[in-house]
Amino acid sequence: MQVDILIVEDEVKILEVLEAYLKKAGYGVITAINGSEAIYKYKQYNPRLIILDLMLPDISGEKICEIIRKESEVPIIMLTAKVEEESILKCFSLGTDDYITKPFSPKQVVARVNAVLKRALNYKQDNVLSFNKGDLVINLDTYEVRQGNNLVELTPSEFKILLALCESPKKVFSRGELLDRALGDDSDVYDRIIDSHIKNLRSKIEENSKNPKYILTVHGIGYKFGGE
User: Fold this and answer.
1) Do both 207 and 115 map to the same domain?
2) Main-chain phi, psi angles of 183, to 5 degrees
3) CA separation (Å) from 173 to 54, 131, 164, 213, 223?
4) Which pLDDT tens digit goes with each residue over 127-151?
5) Is 36 found in the same domain as 139?
6) Can you give the residue range of the structural domain that contains 215?
């Protein structure tokens, strides 16, 4: 299942209405009714956008936003009953991309989702990711990778690992997480095979594979992306 949107809302009626309207608009939707479930599903499904209620029974929307922003720039739209300027400004300071005050029109939510996702796509420059002033360029449409002026030939597994790392540049991935996100859930594959893929990737995209600037080792944990 392609997951486009994670809706986090503890009021079941609101949750069901939003889910119905977004599915009708063609989005793949998953839902969560509390903060713990939201964090679990975010990590499991890696959605393209999150609609997040500010007031949840266990973990506040603000705290969830903080947790996610430590590892990802996934767009977040906050749902809130608070209309005070201070509260709204705080949402933006935490990294929220947009906010919607309750009560709201479901059609308005769909329109906001469309707008935020369009901005996110435009930010990626028509599905082209560029790092270090164009030194590393990844084309998501053609699956081409360029380092400097050179076209780099990556295997499908290498491309998926690189994409998983660069789309969440603040996140440190364990070997198991890279295995799950990039290669799928295959119990017959030993997670240390990631080290071999990383070694091959570095030889292809790093100017100096022994002193890498893109794929960094976090000792005792795994790997993270170092490009800017």
Assistant:
1) no
2) -115, -5
3) 28, 19, 9, 16, 5
4) 788 888 888 988 887 888 988 878 8
5) no
6) 128-225
Angle, to 10 degrees, between the axis of helix 35-45 and the axis of helix 61-69? 30
If one counts the domains in the chain, the total is 2
Strands 144-147 and 136-139: antiparallel
Final residue in a domain of this structure, among 66, 91, 123: 123
CATH of residue 156: 1.10.10.10
pTM of the model: 0.58
Sign of the alpha-carbon dihedral angle for 190, 165, 215, 217: negative
Task: Write the pLDDT tens digit of every residue in 173-196.
Answer: 888 888 776 666 544 455 677 888
Residue whose C-alpha is closest to residue 50's, from 12, 83, 84, 97 = 97
The CATH number assigned to the domain holding 44 equals 3.40.50.2300
For residue 110, give both structure tokens.
Answer: 């769909």
